[in-house]
Amino acid sequence: MTSKASGTGDRTRPLRADAERTVRAILEAAERVLSADPAATMEQIAEAAGVARTTVHRRFATREALVAAMSVWAARQFHDAVTAGRPDTTPPAVALYQVTANVLRVKLAWGFAMTARRTDDPEVAHVHADVLDRCDRLFRRAREAGVLRADVDLDWTRRVYYALIHEAAQDDRGEDADVLATRIVDTLLRGFGGPDGASAR
């Protein structure tokens, strides 16, 4: 009895892994195809994923369901990227760079899904609320450590930071996430002013 149950479990694990790989292949193909052509069909996505159209429809009943799944998948990657930067424990300047580079990798890889994110999806909303909290804590730590000025408006700083990441993700020069992250952090912390900039106020 034990060996049979064990054997059944062994057979289901590869099947589950295969199903997960198929779903990921479809999601990744959908990101590539829809980034190039937002009006692309499910058939085009299936072809790009290397699976039958019926396989895509079996996993995602409609195109809207597929886009919603992409949104959730991208949100999870986004959350993992922020968490991997250890914003609550790593020295603030280091964490700021690492989180920025990690987030950019997700935004560059999942641009369509991130743009099409479903704000009405509970999981997506929870992920973005948690990321907002982590970002706020990181910026407070940065201010306490002197990385940011003591009088800085943290809400405005975070909004500018988000805008810089958004603009960097639209960059079409083919620069990688590390280069873009360095530019974002340098711009956030030092800006564009010259040595005489302060005296002009």
Q: Your description of this structure?
A:
The chain has 201 residues and is mainly alpha-helical. The protein has 2 domains: 1-61, Arc Repressor Mutant, subunit A (Orthogonal Bundle), CATH 1.10.10; 64-191, Tetracycline Repressor, domain 2. Helices cover 74% and strands 0% of the residues. The protein has helices at residues 2-36, 42-49, 53-59, 63-84, 92-109, 111-115, 122-144, 154-169, 177-190. Helix 2 crosses helix 3, helix 4 (63-84) packs antiparallel against helix 5 (92-109) and helix 4 packs parallel to helix 7 (122-144). The radius of gyration is 21 Å and the shape is elongated. The protein starts with a helix and ends in an 11-residue tail after the last helix. The relative contact order is 0.09. The model is unreliable at 1-9 (pLDDT under 50).
Task: Give a brief outline of the structure.
This protein is mainly α. The protein has helices at 2-36, 42-49, 53-59, 63-84, 92-109, 111-115, 122-144, 154-169, 177-190.
